[in-house]
């Protein structure tokens, strides 16, 4: 695969292959595929976990990172995203991890331009977040060993969450049963096609996996933010110890983070025995190593084919 842009791009087999590769890295597999190669992390939105996780993954693969700060880059002078990416390709970057506020920013890059650099989507607007989705899948697979028939509930700001879009899509395709909770206004027709809306107590009693999402205030209107009450939200939709006690013994609590303690999750629940929030983050490094390796392997195959052609000509 040349690029990893959305979960819909990946076949089920490719998803399982990436999970297997990530688990091999977690078990100690070494790879020199990134030796002497350069990566650029083009983040135009704030990030802690995704950016630093990709940085660690790149270093573990032997890559060098080209430093980039959107606030001091030429994009502030009007440079297009394409010209920024093409510049990094021209100076030797092999992989560009991009987070951008525009939904499907990558379509113009891959459909209208002949780029040699590999693009990995680090999150686009409210669209897709493939690396988060894949690390979530890895974490669930480690715990249950399968996806088919699992009941997965996603609670929170569904409509603004690229994680919700990515996870609901791929989990449905892999055979999980999807359910949703939170404000009815966030339960859009897209999610209604994949599963019913339920109250949080019922979700906690029935789900194998409970995924929480933060409220994305930066994407809400000023009126929505002014009327929002943290206390009311936590009472109606937040996960506290009482709701955790309703869960089945092996239920997983997940969250892509950043977590807002006391809003969607209680402080004592964030690191309880059922919580996989920080194990998700640890798995993120191994999954991102697998993703980078997957796109770079295409270069090695192309070089191998080119070498064979040259050798045939010399004969």
UniProtKB/TrEMBL annotation:
It is an enzyme of class 2 (transferase). One of its GO terms (cellular component) is cytosol. Carbamoyl phosphate binds at residues 49-50, 99, 129, 132, 257-258. Gene3D superfamilies: Aspartate/ornithine carbamoyltransferase. It comes from the Bacteria. GO terms for molecular function: amino acid binding; aspartate carbamoyltransferase activity. It comes from Companilactobacillus halodurans. L-aspartate binds at residues 77, 162, 214. This is Aspartate carbamoyltransferase. Pathway: Pyrimidine metabolism; UMP biosynthesis via de novo pathway; (S)-dihydroorotate from bicarbonate: step 2/3. Heterododecamer (2C3:3R2) of six catalytic PyrB chains organized as two trimers (C3), and six regulatory PyrI chains organized as three dimers (R2). Keywords: Pyrimidine biosynthesis, Transferase. Belongs to the aspartate/ornithine carbamoyltransferase superfamily. ATCase family. SUPFAM superfamilies: Aspartate/ornithine carbamoyltransferase. It catalyses: carbamoyl phosphate + L-aspartate = N-carbamoyl-L-aspartate + phosphate + H(+). InterPro entries: Asp/Orn_carbamoyltranf_P-bd, Asp/Orn_carbamoylTrfase, Asp/Orn_carbamoylTrfase_sf, Asp_carbamoyltransf, Asp_carbamoyltransf_Asp/Orn-bd. Pfam families: OTCace, OTCace_N. Catalyzes the condensation of carbamoyl phosphate and aspartate to form carbamoyl aspartate and inorganic phosphate, the committed step in the de novo pyrimidine nucleotide biosynthesis pathway.
């Amino acid at each position: 695969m040349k690029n990893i842009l959305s979960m819909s791009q990946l076949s089920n087999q490719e998803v399982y292959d990436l999970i297997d590769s990530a688990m091999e890295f977690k078990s100690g597999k070494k790879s020199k595929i990134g030796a002497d190669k350069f990566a650029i992390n083009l983040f135009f939105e704030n990030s802690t976990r995704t950016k630093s996780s990709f940085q660690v993954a790149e270093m573990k693969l032997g890559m060098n990172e080209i430093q980039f700060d959107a606030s001091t880059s030429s994009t502030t002078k009007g440079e297009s995203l394409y010209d920024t990416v093409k510049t990094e390709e021209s100076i030797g970057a092999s992989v560009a991890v991009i987070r951008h506020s525009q939904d499907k920013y990558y379509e113009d890059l891959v459909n209208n331009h002949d780029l040699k650099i590999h693009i990995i989507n680090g999150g686009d607007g409210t669209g897709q977040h493939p690396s988060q989705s894949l690390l979530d899948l890895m974490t669930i697979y480690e715990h249950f060993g399968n996806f088919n028939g699992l009941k997965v509930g996603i609670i929170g700001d569904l409509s603004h969450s690229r994680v919700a879009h990515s996870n609901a899509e791929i989990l449905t395709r892999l055979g999980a049963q999807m359910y949703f909770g939170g404000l009815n206004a966030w339960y859009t027709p897209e999610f209604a096609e994949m599963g019913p809306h339920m109250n949080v107590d019922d979700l906690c009693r029935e789900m194998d996996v409970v995924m929480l999402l933060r409220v994305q205030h930066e994407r809400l209107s000023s009126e929505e933010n002014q009327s929002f009450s943290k206390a009311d939200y936590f009472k109606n939709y937040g996960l506290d110890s009482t709701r955790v006690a309703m869960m089945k013994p092996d239920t997983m609590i997940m969250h892509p983070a950043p977590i807002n303690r006391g809003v969607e999750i209680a402080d004592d629940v964030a690191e309880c025995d059922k919580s996989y929030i920080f194990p998700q983050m640890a798995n993120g490094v191994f999954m991102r190593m697998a993703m980078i390796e997957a796109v770079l392997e295409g270069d090695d195959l192309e070089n191998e084919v080119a070498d064979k052609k040259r050798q045939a000509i010399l004969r």
